[in-house]
Amino acid sequence: MSVTVRVPAKVNVQLAVGAARPDGFHDLANVFLAVGLHDEVTVTPADELRVTCAGPDAGQVPLDRTNLAARAALALAGRRGIEPAVHLHIAKDIPVAGGMAGGSADGAGALLACDTLWGTNASREELLEICAELGSDVPFSLVGGAALGTGRGEKLRVLDVGGTFHWVFAMAGRGLSTPAVFREFDRLTEGLDVPEPVASQELIDALAKGDADALAAAVSNDLQPAALSLFPELADTLAAGRTAGALAALVSGSGPTTAFLTRDPQAAAKVAAALTASGTCRTVRTASGPAAGATVVAGS
Ligand code: C5P
């Protein structure tokens, strides 16, 4: 008996970051869009909790109890007083430490998979509460589509999306640590008056209309200067995508994956080919959004 859950990656079309809070987190206005790059988490009964991972970046994934998939199984089992005796296998296609919520996807996927396998029947509300305990981006991985995240990003308001957006993603040769990027944001904004993060109405309207040009004009990422400061070569990747005709080029979340919005699949293929030829990144992928949130795809 096993259950498999498919979970999407995300790109942040807006990431407005406020000043550091007393707890070290930052208040955000974080507009997430789920895109069609996926991890799959399969849970099978086992003697004890075990995590395995397959995929091109599998070697970089921790297999101990720091893995968000393991932490999700432990959290649900702890709440129900049951043994988390499962094998969690992650088929990983989302870049690791890339700013596309790959770890968060595995947490949300493992939670839904364990709830289904164990028949624990957690309500949507309880699943979202556990996700928020696991990490700021984990609730969105469960929900998918598009949403505005406030607080530290975990309080979600679902957003309408009136069309399909075509993206190209350039994966970098190394990862960036999210806490390190936020620390660099703090360093770069030290002594400055950091405004309260506010969601852009133009951006929300562009999503609702499915208007790629309007979305391109409205995208923004306050973590981009910090990511570029720690990883200056990303500027070359952004420039290569812009030159190839991308409507918008930005760092995805805390990076270092860079995201390029294009008008249609043909333009995406052209930008992808130019980025590959540029030699400024490790791998290039195309994907469209919105994509569905965590979904049970197989159970036996
Ligand atoms: O919530 P999560 O565990 O994904 O956050 C990882 C790290 O990113 C935090 O420890 C913190 O350094 C930073 N972070 C932040 N403000 C947020 C979300 C994350 O400073 N809103």
Give a structural overview.
It is built from ten helices and twelve strands. A hairpin with a 5-residue loop joins strand 1 and strand 2. The chain has two domains: 3-159 and 295-299, 2-Layer Sandwich (Ribosomal Protein S5, domain 2); 165-289, Alpha-Beta Plaits. It is of the alpha+beta class and 300 residues long. The strands form two sheets. Strands 1, 2, 3, 4, 5, 6, 8 and 12 form an eight-stranded mixed beta sheet that branches. The chain has a four-stranded antiparallel beta sheet with strand order 9-10-7-11, with helices on both faces. 35% of the residues lie in helices and 29% in strands. The chain is globular and about 55 Å long. It starts with a strand and ends with a strand. Helix 1 (68-80) runs parallel beside helix 2 and helix 9 crosses helix 10 (265-278). Bound molecules: cytidine-5'-monophosphate. Cytidine-5'-monophosphate (C5P) binds next to strand 2 and helix 5.
What's the short story on this structure?
The chain has helices at residues 68-80, 102-118, 124-134, 138-143, 178-188, 201-209, 212-218, 224-230, 234-243, 265-278; strands spanning 3-20, 26-45, 50-54, 86-91, 146-150, 155-158, 165-171, 220-221, 248-251, 258-262, 283-289, 295-299. By secondary structure, it is of the alpha+beta class.
